[in-house]
Write a structure and sequence with these properties.
Length: 204
């Protein structure tokens, strides 16, 4: 019972405090390292026309300006991915990756601006790093109680990229949604097209 309460209540708080103490430069290195391991396996170079890629980079720069990030914004990387489908994800400290399939599915650039705002909110609030630390904390607590910490650490290292690319917790998603909506309002961008894109993703 105590272990269950500790996992449910104590771990997220302690893990978040530990994650927030990580220097941003180290967080960015972690994100770049995990992305490098996935690039070439889960991702391929974008096949979007160069002028389309330039337009999306300009839109990302606009949205980044309203993100409230303390430091320089992370890079936006456009990638093709049969495995990931229509998707976008933010690695700890960046980069932000958006797939060609998502660009094709979006009803407008306003919808893509909403996706960019959502992913930048994940970066700003350090959701990726916090999720990884939370997952690792749970595994380590179980190892302390039941032993065999070595194999648990091996599993954590092997699944590092999987933890990041899996869906964020509902708590993190709601927070990113709220921040993204505020960013779009600040930029004068309507949210209706983002809602349409989410409906299309849900239907798929």
């Amino acid at each position: 019972l105590l272990l269950g309460l500790g996992l449910r209540l104590g771990v997220p708080v302690m893990a978040d405090r530990a994650a927030m103490a990580v220097p941003p430069t180290l967080e960015a290195r972690i994100g770049a390292m995990v992305f490098a391991r996935m690039d070439g396996n889960a991702f391929a170079p974008s096949t979007l026309p160069p002028e389309r890629q330039e337009a999306l980079q300009a839109l990302f720069a606009l949205v980044s300006g309203a993100s409230g990030l303390a430091g320089p914004p992370p890079p936006l990387l456009l990638r093709a991915s049969g495995r990931m489908g229509a998707n976008a994800l933010a690695f700890p400290g960046g980069p932000v990756v958006m797939t060609d399939a998502l660009v094709a599915l979006a009803p407008s650039d306003a919808a893509l601006a909403g996706v960019m705002a959502h992913e930048l909110a994940h970066v700003r609030e350090r959701h990726g790093l916090r999720q990884v630390v939370r997952a690792g904390s749970v595994l380590l607590m179980v190892a302390l109680v039941f032993g065999d910490a070595g194999s648990v650490l091996d599993e954590l290292a092997a699944g590092f990229g999987l933890v990041i690319t899996n869906a964020y917790s509902r708590e993190f998603e709601r927070e990113a949604d709220a921040i993204a909506a505020a960013m779009l309002r600040d930029l004068g961008i309507p949210t209706e097209d983002l809602a349409r894109l989410l409906e299309r993703l849900g239907a798929g």
